[in-house]
Amino acid sequence: MPVELTLHKAAEELRRGDLASVLRARQRVAGLVGTYPHRLDLRERLAEVYRTLGQPAQAGRWTYLSEERDPEETQAFERAYRRAEARLGALSWQGRVDEAPPKPHGPAWPPSTWRRASSCSTSSTPPRTRRRRGAPA
Predict the structure, then answer these.
(1) pLDDT tens digits, residue range 35-55?
(2) What is the mean pLDDT of residues 3-23?
(3) Burial of 125 (0-12, 13-18, 19+ CB in 10 A)
(4) Alpha carbon 56 to chain centroid, angstroms
(5) Secondary structure (DSSP) of 51-81
(6) Helix %, strand %, coil % of the chain (to 5)
(7) What number is the average pLDDT over the span 62-87?
(8) For residues 77 and 61, is the Cβ–Cβ distance under 8 A?
(9) Euclidean distance between the first and final Cα of the chain, in Å?
(10) Residues 91-127: pLDDT tens digits?
């Protein structure tokens, strides 16, 4: 199904407003984000769905790379995903940020978007390691 038709169906489902319709809209738009991860407009649409569902951390997750973000949603996302590596994974980013291909649709990402994405992948926090039981500390 073409992107615009999928977005139209999702918008209709959001307008209906019942939980089953909103969840279908979420599924549709999440599928588009998975297929076109570099399209910020699709991420913002997914954030709209999560706002409807009353999930500010998820709304903040999907607008994290956008120029226009709600500070409370951003903080909720950062509280839910405290480590930069966890944030990068939650953003459904594929590969390294500096190797991301150019966006196939719409204008190029603004520099602030690249900085936010890059800050997730270049954390000064070392990754957690698990110790095996009985292994020396």
Answers:
(1) 988 888 999 999 999 999 999
(2) 96
(3) exposed
(4) 12
(5) HHTT-HHHHHHHHTTSSS--HHHHHHHHHHS
(6) 60, 0, 40
(7) 90
(8) yes
(9) 54
(10) 886 655 555 544 444 445 556 665 666 666 544 443 3
Identify the residue whose tokens are 């953003």. Answer: 91
Written as one letter, the residue type at 12 is: E
Residue type, 37: P
Token pair for 100: 């991301």
Amino acid at 25: A
Tokens 């936010």 belong to 116
Overall pTM > 0.90: no
Q: How far apart are CA 127 and CA 115, in angstroms?
A: 21
Rounded to the nearest 10°, the torsion over CA 83, 108, 49, 7 is: -150
